[in-house]
Amino acid sequence: xxxLGRGRVExxxxxxxxxxxxxRRFGKQCARGLEKGExxxxxxxxxxxxxxxxxxxxxxxRWHHPKRGLLxxxxxxxxxxxxxxxxxxxxxxxxxxxxxxxxWIRQGVRVPRIAVxxxxxxxxxxxxxxxxxxxxxxxxxxxxxxxETIFLDNSEDGVLANVAGLKAMGIDIEIDDFGxxxxxxxxxxKLKPRRMKIDRQLVLxxxxxxxxxxxxRSIVDIAKALDIEVIAEGVETLEHxxxxxxxxxxxxxxxxxxxxxxxxxxxxxxxxxxEL
Length: 276
Ligand code: C2E
Ligand code: CA
Ligand code: CA
Ligand code: CA
What we know:
This protein has 276 residues and is an alpha/beta fold. It has helices at 2-36, 77-82, 86-106, 120-123, 128-133, 156-169, 185-191, 200-203, 210-225, 238-246, 263-272, and strands at 39-48, 54-65, 69-71, 113-117, 142-147, 172-178, 195-198, 229-232, 251-252, 261-262. 32% of the residues are buried. The structure holds ligand C2E and calcium ion (CA) (3 copies). One calcium ion (CA) binds next to helix 3.
């Protein structure tokens, strides 16, 4: 038994070593990628549910990896988080998106609000507001998407202080993936977000389940009671889009509306028409 135990320990530590080496290699690549501007924003349009005009654009990170090609967030966000690099990645994506937006404005198009994803690490950084104030951001047309788990690993006071600072700058707070994790009414009341995005797991079944449809209506009612605008995400069919509009959702986002696209395609979209 002793032998077996030792063997196990060795196997385990060999695995751990391999994993550590992998993470270390990944960390180096990631740091270099950040330096070289390999992380770039993709853009997914959001439309007003009634008019179908583009009223927002979510910024989604992609990694142009020199060897592996274009990587999706599923392949790097979590590891970057484990390595403590997600705050730097968020900062790099925000800067790149602001640069794209300035270029679009120079082209003469009307650019709607852009929404960036902000990790808990970045939101709890006490220097965040100072740092943003030094950027050229036109905060009135910027939103930060925060996960509803934001209070879990962070000091509530730190989070709320930053949220207050962001709002004072004119940056909108939005709760992302509402209903997928630790959705709480108290949390909503503390953060007082401008908008909430209802998770696509709650959106998908509304066309096939009466119960889920009623639930969606109730969530919209709660949001309305708290003066929060509702964005439905994961809108994959026109049937969903119609029903969500009927249930009172304000803004729609999903493949039925538009796919995430690179900056040049987004500009083309904005130039052609603001209706989808
Ligand atoms: P998210 O914030 O919930 O973003 C929405 C995700 O759903 C995106 O995946 C988007 O491409 C995808 N999506 C959009 N419409 C539909 C649809 O109709 N159906 C389905 N099935 N999916 C749809 P993506 O781009 O792979 O991003 C995944 C996650 O990675 C994001 O989820 C977000 O949590 C995270 N992420 C992406 N970019 C950043 C970033 O710059 N910073 C941070 N901290 N996280 C990011
Ligand atoms: Ca860091
Ligand atoms: Ca998001
Ligand atoms: Ca989301």
